[in-house]
Design goal:
Length: about 300
């Protein structure tokens, strides 16, 4: 793993986020999840994670994230967070489904250990849709309770929203609901046809079919004064809302998984492929990373409008 750090694009790590996917086990099975049963058995040992993060810290890293799977079900997570804090990591993030924070003791222990950046995947704005996606009737209630517990501890999570066949028309309502719970920033992620979800073709619609719902989410964000950013769709496919399109490279994320190490924009679930219509666009190889490979394979690039 140390050689992987050495081969990354950065020699200095002061502003690099080291994002460790410590394992793919989870306490739910969302209907769009790309994690296969085989992947769920893959885990990184705490010792190996410590080795990687010790190396990264020696290179100047102060930002770390833990993901999965569901990292909060790992017994070693909170001790690992505390270990990072004690060694100089000042920004410690966990990406989660949020259910474990419904236990006040767990939420308080996580904050006390040094966890200070919370990302929660908000599936929906109603119990019915939440249950349909996550497969748990109590999921909506648990996540609401978790957000309330974090708020009492002085933390406002970032909301991660998935754009797919049964959520795109509700995105503005989802933003509205969770903004009412104090959430001030939302990231929109386009569902991926990869691994376990690769044959679930109906989950991924054309952006042009979902554009109305995506635009409504942007407008709802403006109305409420909260940030709503798209992370997987090229700006030419969201005309008039180019400022709502995030460039993944600006996050400077190095992803460490049980199987591989790569920058965030190199991931197969990130936009990093260009179609023929991208040629000659002023943003190609610049501000725009193109489309996701699975989207390009599914629908081609006829929705792309190159900027000369």
């Amino acid at each position: 793993m140390q050689s992987a750090l050495e081969s990354s694009p950065w020699g200095e790590y002061q502003d690099v986020l080291v994002d460790v996917q410590i394992g793919y086990a989870c306490n739910v099975q969302c209907d769009y999840c790309s994690i296969t049963d085989e992947m769920r058995e893959q885990n990184m040992s705490i010792a190996s994670v410590m080795d990687i993060l010790s190396d990264a810290r020696a290179r100047g890293a102060t930002r770390v994230a833990f993901g999965g799977g569901e990292p909060t079900i790992r017994r070693g997570l909170i001790p690992l967070v505390r270990w990072c804090r004690d060694r100089g990591y000042t920004a410690i993030k966990v990406a989660s489904n949020g259910m474990m924070y419904s236990y006040p003791e767990y939420a308080a222990e996580a904050v006390d250990a040094g966890l200070n950046e919370f990302h929660i995947s908000f599936m929906a704005h109603t119990p019915e849709l939440y249950a349909s996606i996550m497969g748990r009737d109590d999921a909506f209630e648990l996540v609401n309770r978790g957000v309330a517990n974090l708020a009492k501890l002085g933390h406002k999570p970032v909301g991660d929203l998935i754009i797919k066949n049964d959520t795109w028309m509700h995105l503005a309502d989802i933003v509205d609901y969770w903004a009412g719970k104090g959430i001030e920033k939302f990231n929109l992620w386009l569902v991926s046809l990869s691994d376990r979800n690769q044959t679930n073709l109906g989950s991924l619609l054309r952006v042009s079919e979902m554009r109305e719902g995506i635009f409504a989410a942007f407008e709802k964000g403006r109305e409420l004064g909260v940030t709503v950013l798209s992370r997987h769709i090229p700006r030419c496919m969201l005309p008039g809302y180019e400022e709502n399109v995030a460039d993944l490279r600006e996050d400077r994320v190095l992803v460490i998984t049980p199987r591989a190490t790569f920058t965030l924009w190199e991931s197969k679930i990130s936009p990093n492929a260009y179609g023929p219509r991208c040629e000659g666009c002023r943003y190609k190889d610049g501000e725009c990373l193109g489309l996701r490979a699975d989207y390009l394979e599914r629908y081609g690039d006829d929705e792309v409008v190159p900027v000369p």
